[in-house]
Amino acid sequence: MQKVTEQQILALAPNPAAAANGRKISQKGGFVRRERSADDTFYLGECTGSGKSNYITTADFIDPAAPVFRCSCPSRQFPCKHSLALLFEIAGQKPFGECEIPEDIQKKRERKQAKAAKAAAGEEEADGVSGGEGQTEKAAKPKTARKKTVTAAAAKKLKKQLEGLELTAKLVQERMRFGLGTMGGTALDSYRQLAKQLGDYYLPGPQRLLNRLILEIEAFQKDQQESHYEASIEVLEKLWTLVKKSTVYLNQKLEQKEPAQDDNLLYEELGGIWKLSELEELGRSRPDVKLVQMAFWVDYDAARKEYIDIGYWADLATGEISLTYNYRPVKALKYVKQEDSVFGVAEIPRAVYYPGEGNLRVRWDGGIIRDVGPEDIEKLRSFAARAVGPEAKNAKNILKNVLGSPILFRLIAYEQIGRVGEQIVLRAEGGDTILLGDPPGAEQTLRWLDLLPEAELLQHQVLLGGFYYDARAKRMCLWPVSIVAPDRIVRLLY
Fold it and tell me: Are 364 and 351 in contact (CB under 8 A)?
């Protein structure tokens, strides 16, 4: 029988309500028939519903990492509550009778396999692996013509981007010359107009930074809070760095006769969107990855007008901390599924990592979620650094890159966390100490340390913390996120 966990069901659900409704159907005995195939790849359930006829829902596990769900109900949610209820039946080890795999399911499987084989054959033919000499020569002509068209289009886009960067450079230089305090309503209107134009220059990255600058200046003019001024300076610094480095980067690509895709971080900073296939071609994928989620947070980016679901994951093979980002534009909230906390281990056939340094962004398609076991906790604790000093020094070097993330997450083994006056300090096993704090704009987790139910959690444990530079205190600090005890993970950031 297929092994399905509650964490896997919650991860597949389109929203928490659908999962809750599916659980209710299962708990109340909504199924009048349950069947599965002899090879354990196909499950079927007949479920009572609000319609005249019962609903037939199926789950096809021909690919266990990416099961396919079908249901006769009229719901537009996918998977629907009946499909999720069937998963709860499987997870609950309910009895299933044996059945044959329906003919229509067999045909759908065959069509899918044929489509995959055709795609693979098409790639081989395009590379000249198959086909006669005449066919290869014949196919080469349109391919060459298309290549020239793509190259010309790429060059045109690069030139347009360079024009937009030149306009942005003038704006930044103007602000640096006259100061932020001189930006009145007229100046802000012209900046808003430029921000809109940057979309036409294929520069959504600088566009978002400019929007963020405008928001900070608007807030500064209203309340004169120094924090807005400091944030504006940081945005200007990042914008100027991006303009300078991107100008060199784009000119170099323009000089190439056939600009190839690369894994330069500037591609994404300018607003480029990576496809998983592109990152795989660049060698940025890893097989058989096991990640345990350590924390979860939902942020709102006013400049992007998007909610961002952020997951913090630890690799059970290396201890490396990576992040997942799920972007949900305000205009499309009802179309984009919100991510949620995952209290388990994601076993992933192949994961893809984005370019960058520090905590890399990771993505994957397919995979299963299993419960966290004692051996997983033991592995996590074994990866923790015993001294803060070297980790803080490494973080300082990485955080110098203004285009990167302002926080670097690491696992730290500590002897004790306690108060020194009004401050909370971590003393590592190596004896060195670091001040704990909450980064500006981040969720406040420091307060939860005083509310932990057991005092033992503040002694001889492992902390997942984020190193960041406190500009006002002029020192490195550590943002507490999760505590890894010998028997569990205690989340401060849910």
Answer: yes
